[in-house]
Amino acid sequence: MSAPAEEKSSFVINGKSWSGAVHPLKRLLDTIREDVGLTGTKEGCGEGECGACTVFLDGQVVMSCMVPTCQAEGKQITTIEGLAENGRLHPMQESFAQEGGAQCGICTPGMIMAAVAYARDPGSAEDMREALAGNLCRCTGYIRIFEAVKKAMAK
Amino acid sequence: MKSSIADFAVISPRTLAEALASLRQTPPPVPLAGGTDIMVLLNAGQLEPGVYLNLYSVPELRRPIEVSAGVRDAGTWGAGGADPPGEVRLSALTTYADVRRHAEVRRLLPMLPLAAREIGAVQIQSRATWAGNIANASPAADGVPPLMAYDATVELSSAAGVRQVALSEFYSGYKQTARRPDELITGIRIPVPAPGSIDYFRKVGTRKFQAISKVLLAGLVELGGSREIRKIRLVFASVMPFTYRARKTESVLEGRRLEPGAVSLAVETLRTELKPIDDIRSTARYRLKVACNLLEEFLGTTMGC
Amino acid sequence: MPDVLTTPAYRWVGHNPPRKESLEKVTGSAKYLDDLKFEGCLHGKTVRSTVPHGRIKKISFEPGVPWDEFTVVTARDIPGKNVVSLIELDQPFLADGLVRHMAEPVVLLAHPDKGMAEKAVKRVHIEYEELPAILTIEESLAGGNIQYGKDNIFKKYHIQKGDPESVWPKADVVIEGEYWTGPQEQLYIEPQGVVAVASPTGGVTVWGSMQCPFYVHKGLKPLFNLPDDRVRVIYTVTGGGFGGKEEYPTLPAGHAALLSWKAGGRPVKIVYDRMEDMWATTKRHPCKTRVKAAFTKDGKLLALKVDATMDGGAYVTLSTVVLSRGTLHAFGPYACDHVVIDTRAVFTNSPPYGAFRGFGAPQTIFPLELHLHRAACELGIEPHELRRRNLLHQGDRMATGQVMQEETGLEGLMWKAMDESKYLEKTKAYREHNRSSTRIKKGVALALFFHGAGFTGSGEVFLDSKAGLELTRDGAVRILSANTEIGQGSFTTHSQIVAEELRIPYEMVEVAVPDTAVVPNSGPTVASRTCMVVGELLRRAASDLKEVLVKSGALAGNGHTPSEFRAAAGKYLQRFGELKVYSKYKPPPDVSWDDKTYTGSAYAAYAWACYVADLEIDMATYQAQMKDFVAVQEVGRVIHPVIAAGQIEGGVAQAIGWALYEDVALKQGVMQNCQLTNYILPTTADTPPIRVFFYENPYQNGPFGAKGLGELPMDGPAPAIAAAVAFALGDRIIPRIPILPETILDAIS
Ligand SMILES: Cc1cc2nc3c(=O)[nH]c(=O)nc-3n(C[C@H](O)[C@H](O)[C@H](O)COP(=O)(O)OP(=O)(O)OC[C@H]3O[C@@H](n4cnc5c(N)ncnc54)[C@H](O)[C@@H]3O)c2cc1C
Ligand code: FES
Ligand code: FES
Question: Which member of B44, B52, B209 has the closest CB to residue A25?
Answer without folding.
Answer: B52
